[in-house]
Amino acid sequence: MSLLPVMVIFGLSFPPIFLELLISLALFFVVRRILQPTGIYEFVWHPALFNTALYCCLFYLTSRLFS
Fold first, then answer.
1. Residue 33 lies in a domain
2. Residue 6's CB: how many other CB atoms inside 10 A?
3. How far apart are CA 53 and CA 59, in angstroms?
4. Is residue 57 part of a domain?
5. Can you give the residue range of the structural domain that contains 41?
6. pLDDT tens per residue across span 19-39
7. pTM assigned to the model
8. Which of 2, 5, 44, 45 could bridge 50 with an S-S bond, Cβ 3.0-4.6 Å?
């Protein structure tokens, strides 16, 4: 028996962190959509690495908000 509550959606069980991952993913798409027209990606050396770091920061902020 697990100590953490499990979300069950249509018979599929998800860990409690799943909601935080989805919220941070939605925030990531919004922030990326805002940053692309500003031209910030022209100053970034590696856009994929920047996107990964941005998602990690947003996930950290989201998880701190929920805890």
1. yes
2. 10
3. 10
4. yes
5. 15-66
6. 899 999 999 999 999 999 999
7. 0.83
8. 44
* 3-state class (DSSP) for residue 40: helix
Pure H helices in 1-67: 17-38, 47-66
Residue 6, domain member (yes or no): no
Q: What residues contact 17, with CB distance under 8 A and at least 6 apart?
A: 63
Joined tokens for residue 59: 């996930």
What's the average model confidence in pLDDT over 55-61? 98
Predicted local distance difference test score (pLDDT) of residue 27: 98
Residue 16 has which token pair?
A: 């409690």
**Residue 5: helix, strand or coil by DSSP?**
coil
Are the beta carbons of 32 and 51 closer than 8 angstroms? yes
What is the residue type of 61? L
Task: Residue 24: count other Cβ atoms within 10 Å of its Cβ.
Answer: 20
Total Cβ atoms within 10 A of residue 21: 15
Confirm if 58 and 22 have CB atoms less than 8 A apart.
no
